[in-house]
Amino acid sequence: MSHRYVYGVVEASDDIEFETDAVAEADQVYTITHRRYGAVVSDIDTTEPEETDEDAQRHDDVLREIMEYDGGQTIVPMQFGMAFEGDRELKNVLRNAQPAFRRALRDIEGKIELGLKLVREEDADVDREAIEDAVADELEPVAAQSVPNDLFSDRLVFNRSYLVEKEDQEEFDDAVAALEDEYGDELMFQYTGPFAPYSFVDVKIGAQG
């Protein structure tokens, strides 16, 4: 029996279908709709997919393809591993979570997520607070929102995700470049994205079974 692996949720009017390298060696992504919302899915033979590095990357790559599909789509992204027995179970979720999807799509419409990590060079002595202030001065005026992430290493002095209007990405890129010009001797810059805005949605869509 074929189950449904979910990448995210879009407006039902955004009918998405394309061939690609999807999770668990699926080769097609398509939309299952219920009223106002549609889940973008591929077929899978389990409801408990194993999170391999390869499939985690495929999940992210498919989300990027969806975001770029037909001139650009807004999608509420799901974390890796959300799979359902079949269409009926998935449509029940789409029905029951309509208010949450409506809020999430409104909040992230036309926006992308970008990430910035700053890693201290081994011999550098840096003022973390001054760096945080400098980054905030440059990036916060361009971003719609931002959230802090864990500092999981002693040398990681800054780790933050930003929600940015697609049309403002170039301005944001330039602001990051200006910071790198100023602090590049002391810090390694890890600037990533664009991603689907995982960090700015909090929609739980229930049990998979």
Care to give the gist of this entry?
The chain contains five helices and ten strands. With 209 residues, the chain is of the alpha+beta class.
Structure description:
With 209 residues, the chain is of the alpha+beta class. The chain has two domains: 3-109; 111-195, ACT domain (Alpha-Beta Plaits, 2-Layer Sandwich). Helix content is 31%, strand content 31%. The protein has five helices and ten strands; from the N terminus they run ββββαββααβαββαβ. The strands form two sheets. Strands 1, 2, 3, 4, 5 and 6 form a six-stranded antiparallel β-sheet that branches. The protein is elongated and about 55 Å long. The model has no long low-confidence stretch (mean pLDDT 92).
Tags for this model:
209 residues, alpha+beta, Alpha-Beta Plaits, 6-stranded antiparallel β-sheet, 4-stranded antiparallel β-sheet, 5 helices, 10 strands, elongated, gas vesicle, Protein gvpF, GvpL/GvpF
